[in-house]
């Protein structure tokens, strides 16, 4: 029996679609869900996120991380208010450290890649002062290339901090909502 090329392609496409459909059914059926997909605890619907305290020597990092936290929380339908008195809760914290380490070398005296690590302590409190959620020592890191010029290397470092700040904000949101 001879099958033409068009029939074979149709059979392969149909088989692929069936396999994808069965995979979707399997994932839905086994209770699979994304971590951090819950809601804020204690019925919190709004939050004030003041600028984090910066206990590091990195100028401006408090603004970067605070802005990323605000963006991440607001994109999940939690209202953000600038004043504590307008919100159900306050998400506050401290950037406790930033460190840089060399992870690869071109030669014994020259770095080719470094890793920047940022660590924060955060807490979510109700307006009456009771702590609903807190974390100490939450950190993230990102690698960046060391260039021959100092300006280029500093730009790579800034870009790495921006990337890890966004990821850290997602991690915070997931931690706050994972239990609730």
Please describe what this structure looks like.
With 180 residues, this protein is an alpha/beta fold. It folds into 2 domains: 1-32; 38-177, Double Stranded RNA Binding Domain (2-Layer Sandwich). 37% of the residues lie in helices and 32% in strands. The chain is built from 3 helices and 6 strands. It has helices at residues 5-29, 61-74, 150-177, and strands at 46-48, 53-54, 79-80, 89-107, 110-126, 131-145. Strands 1, 2, 3, 4, 5 and 6 form a 6-stranded mixed beta sheet that branches. α2 (61-74) runs parallel beside α3. The protein is globular and about 55 Å long. Residues 29-36 have low confidence and may be disordered.
| Rg for CA atoms | 23 Å
Classified in CATH, the superfamily of the largest domain is Lipoprotein like domain
- Give the domain tally: 2
Helix-residue proportion: 25-40%
Low-confidence regions: 29-36
Major beta sheet, specifics? Answer: 6 strands, mixed
Structure class = alpha/beta
Draw up the topology in text:
Layout: H1 5-29, E1 46-48, E2 53-54, H2 61-74, E3 79-80, E4 89-107, E5 110-126, E6 131-145, H3 150-177
Parallel strand pairs: 1-3, 1-4, 2-4
Antiparallel strand pairs: 4-5, 5-6
Helix pairs in contact: 2-3
What would you say about this model in short?
This protein is of the alpha/beta class and 180 residues long. It has helices spanning 5-29, 61-74, 150-177; strands spanning 46-48, 53-54, 79-80, 89-107, 110-126, 131-145.
Q: Which structural traits does this protein have?
A:
single chain; 180 residues; alpha/beta; Double Stranded RNA Binding Domain; 2 domains; six-stranded mixed β-sheet; 6 strands; 32% strand
